[in-house]
């Protein structure tokens, strides 16, 4: 008789627990109680497992600083890797964020890298000795890529994913993989094999998905930088939920080949291409990692990657022949997608961001010009086509996987996913035609003459072009577990294949609980659900959570996106500081 999914899950969880050294087990007094809520971010430094040096390594130095110290020998990789292995083990026990653990292999590799640097005086690649965590969908030789599906467990990968190969050649040390939701189409990271990942800042709120384990681990400082994947928001949503920076590149910038995605081979070519990208504590770490990947010539590992390094990409200083170096960053503010109206605190956040950017332009060397942009007539169309393309196979492949061992759907999926007839070739063709039509139409949004900009009274010849767009990451704050609403604020940019990132800006304060919804009927069912996240909830649950904005750039302008995010990170820092101080009063 074949094993049930319950048997497989129990074996898999025992395997994971056994890979944590007994000396790294957290005293039970520090572990969160079942069904309780709270903040566990400070437990790693209080529980007595980490040395003072390990606390310094994991809390004081960002990934960029670690790389600099490791490359010169000021830091030993074995010390850095051990520190993050220990902290990841602690994070796992507190918020259930890991799937595969390979601490022993990582420490062995770190020692080898230290020896090589000592012998040659040269680092191995631009990521020499840096520990990096990766989402469970990446394949690493000798370890499962089960993505939380019982039928995929205990079937170790025989090859590395393309990006894994690039990272290893650049000297990175991989030490763990992180949790995902069942089917990787949910926005709350729960599956039957590994269970649910919790949000470390408030365990009553969602950690997001599908790279939720990655977001929670980085938030716990159990990883200096992690890599997730994104086909509808799966990097940006966990970044938003955990108060982090997350970047979804354009397709073709970062290797994606060799993933375990649960879909039939070739499916992405008639659907929406997923992309891989960083989740980190700041923008400069994301840029450092993307630059390092480009230096590793990723096009030699994945035929979809463009043969163009980070340095060869268009930067802010090479925006257009008509623009001069130092010309203000031109930002379009999008306040709604026209399908779900953002709740009052999200609207206030966008207002405050626009006000801060306008007021900072006169005093900042990195001047910013702000215009309002209205894409509300496109939003509903983008959601409709995205949902159509994502359901081409009617979810039949996923149901085949989970029914093989009798698994049930996770709570978030239970009311959303069911078998449907596969779409015909002609239906797929029409969807792809609609996608191309929307991509073509959205190109007009960037141009002043395209008809999407609000009149701002400025004298212009009509040749101004937006550098980036700022918009909500969601129409609501970070919601309770299993309460995430529409994905359209992120998935729209997957359909359009535009690089985009999440930038933390504000800490939700008690004063942010104020505000009424607009009078009149909701726009639709999704809008009604969203309103319930304001009217039918104790708003105190949001207090202390981080509110973020999403930054979007034109297609393949990934370097411009990240450089713009760095400008905005600095310009909006006063908002984060003010709200952070107020939240502690």
Task: For the structure shown, list the relevant keywords.
alpha/beta; Amidase signature (AS) enzymes; 2 domains; 585 residues; 11-stranded mixed beta sheet; globular; two-stranded antiparallel sheet; single chain
Task: Map the helices and strands.
Elements: H1 5-18, H2 43-46, H3 52-60, H4 63-72, H5 77-95, E1 98-101, H6 103-120, E2 131-135, H7 162-169, E3 173-178, E4 190-191, E5 195-196, H8 212-219, E6 226-230, H9 236-241, E7 245-248, E8 275-280, H10 283-295, E9 329-333, H11 344-360, E10 368-372, H12 379-390, H13 396-403, H14 411-414, H15 425-442, E11 468-472, H16 488-495, E12 500-507, H17 525-535, E13 546-552, H18 558-571, H19 573-583
Helix pairs in contact: 3-5, 5-6, 10-18, 12-15, 12-16
